[in-house]
Amino acid sequence: MIREIFVLFIATSFTADFAAATTVLECSTGKVNRNPKAVSISKCDQPPCLLKRKTTIDVEQHFVPDRDVHSLKTSVNAAVLGVSLPFVGVDGSNACNQIYNVDGSKASCPLTKGTEYVYKNSFPVLQIYPRIAVKVHWALTEGPDNIACFEVPAQIM
Q1: Which of the four pLDDT bands, split at 50, 70 and 90, describes residue 30?
Q2: How far is Cα 100 from Cα 120, in angstroms, rounded to an integer?
Q3: Closest C-alpha to 99, from 87, 110, 86, 85
Q4: Structural domains of the chain ordered from first start
Q5: How does residue 14 score in pLDDT terms, banded at 50, 70 and 90?
Q6: Are 74 and 96 in contact (CB under 8 A)?
């Protein structure tokens, strides 16, 4: 009995971070993304997302490519005083090995047009990051093209 309660507590604690989608902006329009499961950022339902230094933030994004995709890179930067600065350790990384099917099974590139996928990643909020308000731009790209993209106001603490 105690073991079952412990397992339930752990499962509830883990899913609590992703219980609700995070309100984010569409890159193409700047409008709020109304898809109820589009993006989940740990410990953030409503912006600005509080990014505490020396912690790790989890990101989960559901997306449907509008064409077949052969390779996928993660492009993550923050606009600071009008200057775009990359998130060290995440920006430019290969995203293909962080793609899952909606049933939770591992997927990888190539991705098929019209199929829903889930991208899962995490990133450290480094101690060297200044305590400042930023707008985070997070995109999955193939060459110069955005395959999936969102923006979210955040506060580095």
Answers
A1: confident
A2: 8
A3: 110
A4: 20-156 (2.60.40.770)
A5: very low
A6: no
What's residue 89's pLDDT? 80
**Are 117 and 63 in contact, with CB atoms under 8 Å apart?**
yes
Buried-state track 9-44, b at ≥16 Cβ within 10 A, e below 16: eeeeeeeeebeebbbbbeeeeeeebeeeebbbbbeb
β-bridge mates for residue 18, sequence order: none
pTM attached to this predicted model: 0.81
Q: Is 106 exposed, middle or buried (0-12, 13-18, 19+ CB in 10 A)?
A: exposed
| Cα–Cα distance, 88 to 84 (Å, whole number) | 12
Tokens of 120: 């899962």
Q: Is 91 helix (H, G, I), strand (E, B) or coil?
A: coil
Question: Residue 12 carries which DSSP code?
Answer: H
> What phi and psi values does residue 79 have, to the nearest 5 degrees?
-85, 115
3-state DSSP call for residue 14?
helix
Q: What's the pLDDT score for residue 81?
A: 81
Q: How confident is residue 83, by pLDDT bands cut at 50, 70 and 90?
A: confident
The per-residue pLDDT for 20 is 64
